[in-house]
Every structure is written in structure tokens, then in C-alpha cells.
Write a structure and sequence with these properties.
- The complex is a heterodimer of chains A (about 120) and B (about 110).
- Chain A has no helices and eleven strands.
- Chain A is mainly beta.
- In chain A, strands 2, 4, 5, 6, 9, 10 and 11 form a seven-stranded mixed beta sheet that branches. Chain A has a four-stranded antiparallel beta sheet with strand order 1-3-8-7, with no helix packed on it.
- Helix content of chain B is about 0%, strand content about 55%.
- Chain B contains no helices and eleven strands.
- In chain B, strands 2, 4, 5, 9, 10 and 11 form a six-stranded mixed beta sheet that branches. A five-stranded antiparallel beta sheet of chain B has the order 1-3-8-7-6, with no helix packed on it.
- In chain B, strand 9 and strand 10 form a beta hairpin.
- The chains are: A mainly beta (about 120), B mainly beta (about 110).
- At the A-B interface, strand 4, strand 5, strand 9 and strand 10 of A face strand 4, strand 5, strand 9 and strand 10 of B.
Chain lengths: ~120, ~110
């Protein structure tokens, strides 16, 4: 158990629908990162939150949004789902906000496998 | 944006063989990390490298931070069945916010 909790583990939904993925970071970690991993692909950075505020944005579609709540858990909202959105969605956490404040990379959760049919 | 080129994409080896994989980039990275991902799980950190030229071992794993800051390699010696999985390199770009960039992964398959 990495300490990063993601729910649900699996999600099957139809095109056009909206889903919410949830992440609880490791205790004490203030930064949450969301990554998308499509079949046989690497990890694509979507968005980062630090202590409730958006910190960095990657290749995140306008149909996707995220937020981090006061208790530091984060939710990734995916709307108007398309078949191509089927992927593994990972959340990771670290303590710090910027380079130099923490070492050792990110701690990842086990992911949510989203299947859009 | 910054990209990491990881090779090979896949490897099929016999148990007991040594493995070598690497990552290169056209831009400088501040930190290099190597992760392993088992099926159905998130990536797990194997080795972290923070200085150019640094060589670090973790059991049968050895990784190096290239002197130019643009590359890194990971070696696995005497492979065993539990080494099967996908290995990712990741780097923190120099001068940017703390956002890891990942390579495309190397899928390792071991024949007993």
C-alpha cells in the first residue's frame, strides 16, 4: 500500500457521460498530480494541485477538470466522455510544491481504470 | 515541451540474463527517476538520481545520471521472473515547475 488511495478501481460508462475519480494523497502530502495512461502508452501529465490551488497544467482536455479540497483529497471530473478517454488514470502525491522541497519523485496510487463503451 | 525517449520499447530475455535500458532527451533534466509498474498497479519508484554522473544501486538494479544531464540508464543483473513489468524513466526538467516527465516505458518479459 503506497498510501495514495484512488477510487473507484474500475469504472465502465457510456459515451457522453460524466464521471468523477477520487484521490486521497499520502498523509502529509500537499501536492496531488493526475496522470493519464492509455493502452501501451507512457504517463501523460494532466494537472497538479498544491494545497488546494492549481499549480501546473499539462495536456488536459477542456472536458476534464479537477479540484483539491481543504482536506487535500482531489477529484478529477471527466465529462462528455468519448471512447478515446478509456485509460488508466493515476493520482500521485508529494509533500512539496516546487523542485527542491522534496526528493524521491512521486508516490502513485493504484489507478482507476476507465472504460468508455 | 520536454520529451524523454526510452529504449528499447520491449525486451524478451531468458531468466538470469542482464538487462539494460536507457532514456535520452534533447533538454537538460535536474533529476532522473526509474519506476516499475506491475499489471494493474501504479508505478513504484526504484531508483532516484540527483547529480550528474551519479551511479546508484538498489540490489540487482544499477542506474546512472548521465554527465550531460540529458540521459540515464538502468541495468538489471541476473534477471528473475518477478522483474517482469514495465519500466519507466522519468525526469524533472531543469528550470521548470516540479512536474515529472515520463518516458514511454520498456516492457520486460522473461522466459523461465
Amino acid at each position: 500500500d503506497s498510501g495514495v488511495t484512488q477510487t473507484p478501481k474500475h469504472l465502465i460508462t457510456a459515451t457522453g457521460q460524466r464521471v468523477t475519480l477520487r484521490c486521497s494523497p499520502r498523509s502529509g502530502d500537499l501536492s496531488v498530480y493526475w496522470y493519464q495512461q492509455s493502452l501501451d502508452q507512457g504517463l501523460q501529465f494532466l494537472i497538479q494541485y498544491y494545497n488546494g490551488e492549481e499549480r501546473a497544467k499539462g495536456n488536459i482536455l477542456e472536458r476534464f477538470s479537477a479540484q483539491q479540497f481543504p482536506d487535500l483529497h482531489s477529484e478529477l471530473n471527466l465529462s462528455s466522455l468519448e471512447l478515446g478517454d478509456s485509460a488508466l488514470y493515476f493520482c500521485a502525491s508529494t509533500h512539496g510544491r516546487d523542485r527542491g522541497l522534496n526528493r524521491g519523485g512521486y508516490t502513485f496510487g493504484s489507478g482507476t481504470r476507465l472504460t468508455v463503451v | 515541451g520536454q520529451q524523454l525517449n526510452q529504449s528499447p520499447q520491449s525486451m524478451f530475455i531468458q531468466e538470469g540474463e542482464d538487462v539494460s535500458m536507457n532514456c535520452t532527451s534533447s533538454s537538460i533534466f535536474n533529476t532522473w527517476l526509474w519506476y516499475k509498474q506491475d499489471p494493474g498497479e501504479g508505478p513504484v519508484l526504484l531508483i532516484a538520481l540527483y547529480k550528474a554522473g551519479e551511479l546508484t544501486s538498489n540490489g540487482r538494479l544499477t542506474a546512472q545520471f548521465g554527465i550531460t544531464r540529458k540521459d540515464s540508464f538502468l541495468n538489471i543483473s541476473a534477471s528473475i521472473p518477478s522483474d517482469v513489468g514495465i519500466y519507466f524513466c522519468a525526469g524533472l526538467p531543469w528550470g521548470g515547475a516540479q512536474k515529472l516527465v515520463f518516458g514511454q516505458g520498456t516492457r520486460l518479459t522473461i522466459n523461465p
